[in-house]
Structures are given as C-alpha cells and as structure tokens.
Amino acid sequence: MLKRFVTRLPLGLLCLTGVSASGPQTSVVQVFDQRGLPVEGAVIEIPPPPGSTRAVTFPWRNAMAQRNQTFVPGTLIVPQGSSVAFPNLDTVRHSIYSFSKPARFQIELYGRDQTRSQRFPITGTVALGCNIHDKMRGYIRVVSTPYAAATDLNGRGQIDGLAPGTHRVTVWHPRLRGSGNETVQTLTIASGNPARLTIELR
C-alpha cells in the first residue's frame, strides 16, 4: 500500500558547509534536484564518533500532528526508543497506520483535539498513512545519532556539534530509489574550510 509513495528523483546535489575554526561546529546542508530546485524532507545523518556520550536529543518535539488532512511535519526525526504524539488538529477523525518494518501498527479512529501516541524502538524509516484519507502521508525517521537533520523548503538542514574530520553521511529521501531509499557517502570537514559533497540520486 505504501510502496506507491516511492517515485523517481533523477539527480540530486548535496552541499555541506562547515562553519567553525577548530572544535565542534555547525554544518549547513543543502539538497537540490536535477533541475537545481531545493529538495524538502531529505534526512541527513552522521553517526557519533567512537566513545561519544552525547545524548540523542533534538530541539523539536516528538510530535506529528494532523492538520488540514496533512501530517505536520511531513518528515519527523526522533531518537530511538521515543514515543511520538499524534495530536488531531482537524475537524475530522483520523486513523494512523504503518506497514514499515521498524514499526507495524494501527491507531484506531480518533477525533479533534484528541491525541494518540506510539513508541518507536527500532531505527529506520516509518511511512505513515491514514485509513480514511488516502492522500495523507508522513515519515518518521528513527535514529541513534544526535547528528541528524531534515531539510526545509529551501533544501537546507543544520547539524550542530560536528568536529573536523572524515564522517560517514547517510542521506534518506522518500523519492530516492535504492535500498531503504538512502545512500551513504563520506565527507571530510576541515577546520575553517567549507566541506562539499556531491551525490547522484536516481
């Protein structure tokens, strides 16, 4: 049922720019398609270095609302083991389901100003749908790293706290064809120098 969500994205360009002098820094990510248009909802992940004790937390809430018969946000990143709230802000009822490997579940119909929650103990991508409204789709990316971000309308994502060095970067997007709709590359961030990574997406 959810496989129809995966379409073709011909070619993508990922630019990652590090901004710092020496220690942990802020990295700004931009993702573009073949036409040079920004790609929204791409998730960029970098694993923590060996021995890292940094907690996997993010500044946003672990919540995905239903508003105007749309999942908001369309793509949500949460730490492994988190419970996600699904508040219904619509005037109609919704029923949420997923057939994805990391989380197969169904939340029965519930109405306006009601909230349901679901725990996500396994990393990976969870594609969401609504049994009542076929056009609704959303994605939860469950991660085990604090270095993750989703791109916005301008194709930009920001990852804080990265140290200079070579990093393995995983990029996921629902329209990226390949195993798990993701690709893996390496990225070198040098002190005071912007880092740039170009990838091809089918």
UniProtKB/TrEMBL annotation:
Transmembrane segments: none annotated. SUPFAM superfamilies: Cupredoxins, Starch-binding domain-like. It comes from Novosphingobium sediminis. One of its GO terms (molecular function) is carbohydrate binding. InterPro entries: Carb-bd-like_fold, Cupredoxin. Keywords: Signal. It comes from the Bacteria. Residues 1-21 form the signal peptide. This is Methylamine utilization protein.
